Amino acid sequence: MMSPLDAATLALTGQHLIEASAGTGKTHNISLLYLRLLLERQFSVRQIAVVTFSDAATRELRGRLRRQLVEAIAFLDESETSNRPDLGAILGRYRTDTAACARARTALQAALVGFDEARISTLHSLCRQLLAEHAFDTGLPFFELDDSAGKEVTREFVRDFWRRHVILEPDQAVADVLQRWKTPNDLAAELIRSQTLVLPIERIDPADAEGWVKKERKTYATALKRWRNLHAKGTVAEALKQLQQAITTKYLNAASDSPLGRSRVQRCLAACAGEPGQVDADALTPLRSSSIEAQISKNAEKAGWTLPAELAEVASVVESLALADEGLRLALLARFTRAAIDFVRERLGEYRKRARCLGFDDLIGQLHASLHGDSATHLAEAIASEVPALLVDEFQDTDTLQYAILHRIHKARMDAVLLLIGDPKQAIYRFRGGDIYTYHAAARDAGSNLHTLRDNWRSDARLIEAVNAVFGSVTDPFMVDFIGFQPAQYPPTKDKPESWLQSNSPLTLWRLPDCVGDKGPKAWTVAQFSARILGEVAASISALLREAEQKQQPPPSIAVLVQTNRQAEQAAQVLGDWNIACDHVSTESVFLSQQASELEYLLAALDAPTDAARVRAALATDLLDRSLDDLLASRDDLTHWEAELALIARLRQRWIADGPYAALSACVRQAAARLLSRWDGPRCVTNFLHLAELLQGESLRRSAPGDLLHWLGQRRNEAAQRPGIDASEQLRATTDSATVEVRTIHRSKGLQYDVVFAPFVMAARDESAAERRKTPTDSVAWHAADELRIDIGSQHWREHASAHADELFAESLRLAYVAMTRARHRVWLAWAFANTGRNVTSFSGPLSWLWFRSDDMRDPRQLAGLKDNTDAVDGRLQALAKRSNESICVEKLDMDAPEPDLGNMTTSPQPLAVAEFHGHIERRLQTLSYSRLFGGGEHAPLADHDENSDAVAQVYPGIVDDPVPQWPRGADFGTCVHGILETIPFAELANPTGNEALTRIAADHGFFGADQEIIAAMARNCVGSELLPGSGFRLMHLGSGEFLPELEFLFPLGVARMSELERILARFPAHARGEGELQARRGSVLGLMTGFIDLVARWQGRYYVIDYKTNLLGASRADYAAARLPAAIRSNDYDLQYLVYLVALQRFLKHRLGGQYDYRRHIGGALYLFVRGMRDGDSAGIHHDCPPLELIDALDAWFTGDRP
After folding, report:
1. Are 1062 and 1017 in a shared domain?
2. Nearest to 815 by CA among 456, 561, 571
3. pTM score of the predicted model
4. Measured between alpha carbons, how far is residue 196 from residues 163, 188, 346 in Å?
5. Where are the alpha helices (DSSP H) in 168-208?
6. List of the chain residues with pLDDT < 50
7. CB neighbours (10 Å) of residue 1040?
8. What local confidence, expressed as pLDDT, does residue 1056 receive?
9. Residue 468 lies in a domain
10. Based on the number of CB atoms within 10 Å of its own CB, is 182 exposed (0-12), middle (13-18) or buried (19 or more)?
């Protein structure tokens, strides 16, 4: 039994479950409970973890809690009565006691000052923090978070398994394997999607696939033996004659598409004529008893014909043999799938330990394993002592492992508090792993600490009444026994503000007429219904916008909520036809968009800029927009064609020089006016720029167009194969100012609008189709005893697929609830007898369950039969409207959709005014790199390539005086060498001959043939040379966790005076500068210091900053002798560069190692590698320096603006 929640009196110990229906002020109550934990439990902001399930929700929650602290402090400072009774219930007693008020104010002020350290995050982020803070107890001292890398590694392990069991040594089930998964990527997609790689292994069926195979083999062997005996005795031959005779006399039907069709019987005869040891069970289908019995004709029944004894005996044996064959094939396929799961899970475990790299799901799995492992008690107590209070928002979207983590931490401390806030009626994220049955388990654990919020602060009173009628019509509206429906109520203390949008019947149900067929009513097709209802939606929105203009009211916020991305696209197009600006936001991946497909064509052309077919395909894209006439002209006119090739060449050059975003954004700018004139123009532009950002991010790993083309194709394939996508690739909003938003219901969760149109809520999808299939086509998830289980293809797969379909239908009911409760004032729904998927009509949808079913109906499959009684629909709908006290209005529509009235779509321009700025802008703020900080003077730093030297070469002992290659040279050469050393594994570069990646990178920068050989030799010498004499330190020997390439740093730069820097350097002769040498920036600097370190490497416990230099210092290796390098270092101010790098490294290590950090023990210094002069066996080309700690500390203080 649930009790109404009173946030002011709730006990702040133990586990509590709070059910917060839509619009009931969930976040507000969380903020009040947070306030009480600070004051009454005297917790700091670090001791309270507030958890939610998206980054956007985290930002909103953080802002709300901060505002609550500010308002609470203001409340304590007020002398008069406040109009905040909620704060008064909590803080009122402090205002009557001066000392208590002062203590409370001090506590709240401290919380506000330290709020940046508050633990307000997603659950994954909290797990990441806890794993890092308790590294030794969890066994993960250092790890990187890279979800995309983990997925790519998973796919690689699946491909490895596929090579072993499908290609090299084919499994017995290979034919069925290839029928279920065409490629290893298909198998990988299913494993990732189905959670089989993260769910406890004991929850995956079948548990003992090998045992099942043995059992089925035995059954098959018995059936096969019986078949052989009948074959040997001639019984099979006699049965075949009897079968043919029965077909001839028409006692058995033998239509061409039946099991006894002519071609099937001939195949059966051929199979029986062969050796009995080789049996094709499928070919024997005409002899199966189930096939024969299904084809007995009425003539046979009239004649009293029965199966002859021989035919009946053989049919029975063949039926057993066929069933045994099916069972064995299923078992073999399940064994293959189970073996793949075990193989990949084992390899992933090894990879995580070796690479110290975790994905988002791994964060949950690792912390859960640690909390249930050898050090579980100590770890749980340690975490609970640091975080004794846990507040979990949107708890209905958690899964079993996540709840187990929260529950384990909570139970480790007697006075801990665990507050779980959510609404099971809004649990709609099953595809992301949300598990509503976890909510049920938590409710049991909470015992009597069950609370509810019923006052709906969002919607108008009449709309609340309408929604109550929709879901209160039946006893089990959500089909799950533990999810009830408690009618919401309008808050008695809330005023009833007037709005022009308010209506006595705020929920409108459009009733479309039935289509008339030859035999009575028939269903609308999907296309017909979509076009008709979306036209009505557009006409109604147009009318609302005109009414707002006529009443001189701001336009209302309007949402069109749909189930699928396809429906969202259709709705956006219809609104565009009506000239209604809308923001189309869906859960679809940008990689599935038309723009991603077109970028593939463009990248292919940039990868091969002289390939005519690729170039023409790129020219035909929306970005370049060549018409058919243009393409034909370029074919026939050489000058025209050369101009097009020059365009692609310029675009490629821009791409290589400045990156994908610069090149693509320039194309978008040129095409913007043309694209934005289309109805889908804003979406096109947004998608192109979104993809440009993603390509730019990936270019840090692979810069060449060909590599990015491969990556883009791979991401597009992955997006097509999985339902859940990364947040980074979800389609973005096209505008911030649109009055109308088109969203999927999933994307609308947590939002609210003045008006909501949900035209497709009635739709049902054919999720039960799997039940009708004979063999498993996918893994299915279902629950047994509130525990999530996954069936990968057991003998009970169809039964479990049926349970899976029931759970999906129950979720569709919750989706309907979410859609209807987003609105403040008005909701529009639709009903029609329509096809809404393959083999299903709207009668099988969620609205039928709520409105049309009989009281004794418990199985959603029974809904399909309602279509035979369409006449009763109108009566049921009118009864619903009456039951709602007329808050629901049934509006009958005609067959024809309204036409766009573009003449009335103009709106009066709103008066605009430019805001005046009265603030102060700090003009000195800048972002500085080493070259900008020190450059510009007489000794300005040069680029790290091709500095010429006319000095006479000297002879240095131990250095073979052979010539240094004078070519290649130039900026492209330096960029090429850096790209090779930063992207290709060092171990591969140790023997780079034939290295495809090296060849490709060199070619992308314009180096071929002999130049590539020189570059390969330089790379080999760089990674193979001993960097410190006698140490064995070579780049090629570094393990995967021993280095970080291209480490970016960014740290604050206080008010730092350049004159003070000169004085610091003057105390250290090796780095001192004469007067005026740092003249580039006189005075002071302020802002941010940034840069990229080519490589940070760890060798024997010491960390080194390493920089690659391609400078041409002279004609021979003697010019690269260690004794001569300091002059080159000094002349280019490279020593100042590595001093900056060492300060950045020290700050990084202090953060990572904490109090254990010791400069003298952990810092190895700087290594500058002049790659032209390096050879293994001597120190040529290698400059090493480890500046004194005093200098680094002095510079560190100078950067912060302190006087050292």
Report:
1. no
2. 561
3. 0.72
4. 21, 11, 13
5. 174-180, 184-193
6. 768-772, 904-910, 936-960, 1080-1081
7. 12
8. 63
9. no
10. exposed
- Please tell me the predicted confidence (pLDDT) of residue 948: 38
- For 1144: left if phi > 0, alpha if psi spans -120 to 50, otherwise beta; the answer is alpha
3-state secondary structure of 215: helix
Asked if residue 426 and residue 411 are part of one domain, the reply reads yes
Domain boundary among 673, 696, 728: 728
Range of the domain at 687: 592-728
Of all helices (H) and strands (E), which one includes residue 599? helix 594-607
Segments in 274-399 forming alpha helices (H): 289-294, 298-303, 309-355, 360-370, 376-386
Task: For residues 634 and 709, state if they share a domain.
Answer: yes
Evaluate whether residue 977 is within a structural domain.
yes
Measured CA to CA, the distance from residue 370 to residue 246 in angstroms comes to 69
Distance linking the first and last C-alpha atoms of the chain: 66
Q: Are 1162 and 1052 part of one and the same domain?
A: yes
β pairing state of 1084-1099 and 1102-1109: antiparallel
Which amino acid type is present at position 1040?
S
Q: Which amino acid is at 832?
A: A
**3-class SS at 533?**
helix
Q: How many CB atoms lie within 10 A of CB 1100?
A: 9
Q: Are residues 410 and 387 in the same domain?
A: yes
Q: Are residues 1062 and 1203 in the same domain?
A: yes
Q: For residue 661, give both structure tokens.
A: 């975003």
The predicted-structure confidence for 1154-1197, as pLDDT tens digits, reads as follows 788 899 999 999 999 998 888 877 888 999 999 999 998 888 88
For residue 521, the surrounding DSSP H or E stretch is: strand 520-522
The rounded distance, in Å, linking the Cα atoms of 772 and 475 is 30
Quick one: tokens of 85? Answer: 């009774």
- Which helix (H) or strand (E) is 889 found in, with range? strand 888-892
**Taking the CA of residue 183 as centre, how many other CA atoms within 13 Å lie in the half-sphere pointing to its CB?**
8
Q: At 112, give phi and psi (nearest 5°).
A: -70, -40
Q: Is residue 539 packed enough to be buried (19+ CB in 10 Å), middle (13-18) or exposed (0-12)? A: middle
Instruction: Find, among 52, 123, 121, 49, the residue nearest to 367 by Cα.
Output: 123
Buried-state track 959-972, b at ≥16 Cβ within 10 A, e below 16:
beeeebbeebbeeb
Gap between the Cα atoms of 1174 and 656, Å rounded: 28
Maximum Cα interatomic distance, the chain, rounded to a whole number of Å: 121
Q: Which 3 state secondary structure label does DSSP give 1032?
A: coil
Report the length, in residues, of the chain: 1204
Number of domains the chain is built from: 6
Q: Residue 574 is inside which H or E element, if any?
A: helix 565-577
Distance of CA 667 to the CA centre of its chain: 28
At residue 91, the pLDDT reads 92
SS3 1015: helix
Q: Are residues 785 and 881 in the same domain?
A: yes
